[in-house]
Batch of 4 targets.
Target 1
Amino acid sequence: MINVDSLTKTYGRFTALQDVSFTARPGRVTGFLGPNGAGKSTTMRVMVGLTPATSGSVTVAGRRFADLPNPGLEVGVLLDASAQHAGRTGREVLTIAVATMGLPRKRVEEMLSLVGLTPTEADRRVRDYSLGMRQRLGIATALAGDPDLLILDEPANGLDPAGIRWMRDLLRGFADRGGTVLLSSHLLGEIEVIADDIVVIGNGRIVAQGTKADLLAAAGTLVRCRDLAGLQHALAAAEVDFTPTPDAPDALRVDADPEVVGELACNYGLALAELRSADSAGLEAMFLELTADTQREGVAA
């Protein structure tokens, strides 16, 4: 289990993290989402002792990462696949990691096979690796100690569709065997497929967290109507909250069940072009709505 409790990190007057709290549980994949600069990587760096917290705490497997006697045997970490020694071969990088953890050398070949790096690729210098190959090497290093927890920052970067599918199956299998996975990614579709729980961060604060099913179900109803003013009047009269949808000028997101919205529209003689649960719009719509005030770009993208 990974437990983040009231974590705050400041750099002078700048607050990178403000009272961040969440838990990643065994047997589940926790998706950690947020716009660029939201605080995802800072949180993960604090988790593994690379960045000191200003206040608050993080425990992995019940202890601070710095207090683990042999961290690689308990926690697999991949924060930056490009941070590997460019002048060494992939096999050398993995051999050093295995030796540092006190593991038998045969573990090197087992991990290379697991992540799909061929003998020829393993003997190439890391400087000649594609980003996808570096990701595979990083995953091999993270898994070498047979840990119970994985902390991964954007592990699918650089992978082709087949590689992304491989990564998804690998992490799903790890969690299904009782492991804890904390996964940061900007590939919202992949998170939607694999995650059991979701934590959304924006401007250094948690803006939403819960099971994927609960968060998407709370999205309400999406309704489209040519007479949008009439629909807004009907909803307001019934004291039902609603918000416009920026990407669909004739649609509203309504905080009520589809049955309630449909009955209101019928009572006011309004013809609806679309009426459905907003969770079918997927994780991307929820993410953009929750982080609308924290996006760097002028429009959501």
Note: The first strand starts at residue 2 and ends at 11.
Target 2
Amino acid sequence: MDVLTDNFSLYGKGFLGTVELTVYASLLAMVLGFVMASFRVAPVGSLRVFGTVWVTILRNTPLTLLFFAVLLGLPRFGLVLPFNVFAVLALGCYTSAFICEVLRSGINTVPTGQGEAARSLGMTFAQTLGTIVLPQAFRSVIPPIGSTLIALAKNSAIAGAFSVTELLGTYKTLNELGYSIIWTFVWIAVGYLIITLTISALFHVMEKRWGVAR
């Protein structure tokens, strides 16, 4: 217990760092995932190809390698930003590929007649997707989106290896101070558990309110 009480501010700083990474990367992943899912089902061939390439590359690239590419590669091209911003970009882009596929699977559950009826009323593709298809698709994909964002929260631990303040990285300082490595990781695990259970509870509420009735 001493490792927590004696270093509460250090744990708190790491905890808030992980929360910030999770929140900002989740927002980016949701936006990009929505855009790429729209591209994947668009009637324009070039957009479908772009969406497919985006998903294929990011889903099959190790996240650690993507961190190296973003945090160490982009500055070589003159793009210099704080490391936590680069970490958000890496996490958000990586997770967007999975969000895209989750949304696309939800879109595929919507009967094709819904879209045909909308088009017969003169609605454009964007109107059909935004007002008819996606609202119905979202109801069926709330649980898998929640699971994907929980994975994002845990994946944020990689950022600590790139000088980004987050929860797992606190073990380095505490280890140097001579604290028990076991209790150090126990309290780190508790911090991640708080974050993931919060996300799970949030999506459970959303599922009860907007999810498909079972």
Note: The chain has a mean pLDDT of 87.
Target 3
Amino acid sequence: MTNTSFSYKQGTSFLHRCPAWIKIIVIPLISVLFFYLPPAFAVGLIALQTLVSFVLGFTVREQFADLRPVIYYAIFLLGVKLFGSVAVAVSDGIFFWLNFSQFFSFFCDFIKSEKETGVLLIKLFCVMQSAAIVFKTSTSLQIREGLEIIELTVRRLLHLSAKANIADALAVFICFIPQVSKNWQQAKLAWRARGGKSGLKMLIVLLPVFFSVGMKQAYNSARAISVRN
């Protein structure tokens, strides 16, 4: 069975039974709050959310599937900055890899210079982890109904018409995230089942199909909402 990002996983835990509108408000709010607190709080929340994920029965592979975009982004960002620092050092005639003490000093200086980047990545990781918990403990229908409850409550307080137009549009956008991941995983499975191998040829063949399927699903969802309203 493939692990798709932000896909719902059936369960009977407290978070699974908790109304979706509460999770939509509380969990992201906690993450955003920790985004503005010192990094130690974000690290603590990451540890707590990892523990909660294991208690909920989410495997390491499932958690990695959700957090993979942030991990890849962190590797790419830090890799580019490290490459730039090495290029500058070489242009200055510093061949630090010939001397361990110079290499260690260079590496420590790089870590210190990228401290703010590291803190940002940690907090981004924390927010992504919170979003994954919401998606994994709520079905697409529950998320849509939760958003409707929130919007209708706000409209009632502001004495506006009882139409959840914003919630419907937002639900389509949010719930399309796990569907996109699922479409890509299915396309790769079909490619490999026919003897295809990962590489540039796979991307050239699958990307047009991937976008075509996604556009069709988005069109059908938009039509279903327009008929419903």
Note: The longest helix spans residues 60-91.
Target 4
Amino acid sequence: MGALLELAVVIPTFNERANVPVLIAKLDQALAGRRWEAIFVDDNSPDGTADAARELGRADPRVRVIQRIGRRGLSSACIEGMCATAAPMVAVIDGDLQHDETLLPKMLDRLQAEPGLDLVVGSRFVEGGGTGDWDRDRVAKSAFATRLSQRVLNVNLSDPMSGFFMVRTQVARDTVPHLSGIGFKILLDLMSASPRPLRAAEMPYVFRLRTEGESKLDHVVAMEYLIALYDRRFGKVVPVRFAMFSAIGVLGVGVHMAVLSLLFVLLGTSFLAGQIVAVAAAMTVNFFLNNALTYRDRRLRGFRPLLDGWVSFCLVCSVGAIANVGVAAFLHDARANEWAVSALIGVLIGAVWNYALSSRFVWGRY
């Protein structure tokens, strides 16, 4: 009988083809003498990351691949990877080589030596750790996000934003039903969602400079972090995706009124023409904001999917507007003295209709 598997290393990837063989070589060196497997969870990268990993897997059975079609997001990729192994310990490490893989055997040793310990976190902010070449602005933003998560979610870690950690697989499996799977911060999700307080230890490492590929950090990542915090605190009351859809709908009202004022008041066009253009503008803005934020994990890419999605969104929202007016008119006729309540109920019905049908027929088709 062969030696038992000790560790699975989950590697969420998107467009990291050049880093795949380098990372496996580094893991092979760092984990020499240990029994491990690497699970690449790839969000259907157009650069062929999954193919590169499969090519390695043909010669090395320790390399496995999960290629996700129509599903995106780092946290949800980590969840799938953690649930796909039989190893008693599972680590999460980025595919961009910025995490220090030489820390993995020390993490494993500590978890094996301390039965009461649930996870070990690679930390940039304990003594001996560091953020490498980060500029002052990025350090300040990271520190702010850390303090915010510590206060809002009461997570007692110096680096709760770390994407580099090792956890007992059973602990991860027990926590998965409670996870939101939103955004980039799976560790924060694990720590705050666990049915019981998790005992964690932190070990220092220095964040490296990326050498291949492009950084995934952009303004939307910061938005997803705030979304994840909202979901953890209020998501059970109002689902985060519906809250975002509704907030963008409110912005759309502002766009509508601004365009209508410009055309009708300032330029003197007819009210009907102004309304038509304003409605089209608001729907277009709402569509692209929802595509970038609300449905980021299902984001439509390419000219044809975007065009089809925009047309479908406009049709859905047109039907929603009719439902809004119809319900409000019916309630007003029934209770004429409660016109404001009737209008608000109509708005709510229209919003729920638009959200439900958009989720299914606009962003649920790809």
Note: The CA atoms of residues 72 and 297 lie 5 Å apart.
